[in-house]
Amino acid sequence: METKAKKDSASQKESAKAKAETKTKDVAEPKADTETAKETKNVKAETQDAKVKGKKPGKEFREFFVDELKDILWAEKALLKALPKMQKAATGKELAASFESHLTETEGQISTLEQVFELMDEKPKTKKCDAMEGLISETESIISDTEKGSAIRDAGLILAAQKVEHYEIATYGTLAALADAMQEPKVAKLLRSILRDEKNSDKKLTSLALESVNEDASEE
Ligand SMILES: [Fe+2]
Ligand SMILES: [Fe+2]
């Protein structure tokens, strides 16, 4: 009897050991994921640490930031070239005037960006922005696909211009936050001043869109 009990307990131990091994194996399998998670955690911890200790993010981060500045500088310059075409294509006087004032505003934004480059100790170089290129080519299609003097063309131009504004709002919003993280308050302040411009332009375009729809409805 005693021997059987011993045997039973031994076999129970065996099966417990086997279960434990299976469990270890199960846990061990997604090792790669666990390690990636650990690495992500470390990067997060480092950023957090840098913030707490007042350290600035590294050189690579700074290079990335400057690269994104070059991207948006290209975008603003491309828009500067596109705006006169948009102004010419617009029928509504207010819409045409808004493109004209946007041109002056964009010139100001370009010089603000140049100040940002100076603060970062970098030359204001440009890097092609695929997104803005796409948005501008969409504007060109709207112009070629719609009739001159039509309300639809104006509506299309407003739509295209608002897409541009939203792209700019997203870009400047994130860049300003990154400048905060890099402890570059002057850079962040300049970027936020552009961000405010972009938000105002967006609001103006929304009211123009509403007006043009209302005018079109009252003409019918
Ligand atoms: Fe802009
Ligand atoms: Fe803008």
Could you explain how this protein is built, in words?
It is built from 7 helices and no strands. The protein has a single domain, classed as Ferritin. With 220 residues, it is mainly α. Helix 3 runs antiparallel to helix 6, helix 5 runs antiparallel to helix 6 and helix 6 packs antiparallel against helix 7. The N and C termini lie far apart (102 Å). The longest helix has 35 residues. One fe (ii) ion binds next to helix 4.
Calculate the terminal CA-CA distance, rounded to whole Å.
Answer: 102 Å
Reported CATH architecture: Up-down Bundle
Structural class by sheet pairing and helices: mainly alpha
Order of helices and strands: HHHHHHH
Major sheet, described briefly?
none
Overview features:
binds fe (ii) ion, elongated, single chain, Ferritin
Can you describe this structure in just a few lines?
The protein is mostly helical and 220 residues long. The protein is built from seven helices and no strands. The termini are far apart.
Detail the topology: elements first, then pairings:
Blueprint: H1 2-28, H2 31-53, H3 59-89, H4 93-119, H5 130-145, H6 151-181, H7 185-219
Helix pairs in contact: 3-4, 3-5, 3-6, 4-7, 5-6, 6-7
The structure holds fe (ii) ion (FE2) (2 copies).
The site of one fe (ii) ion (FE2) has 5 residues, from helix 4.
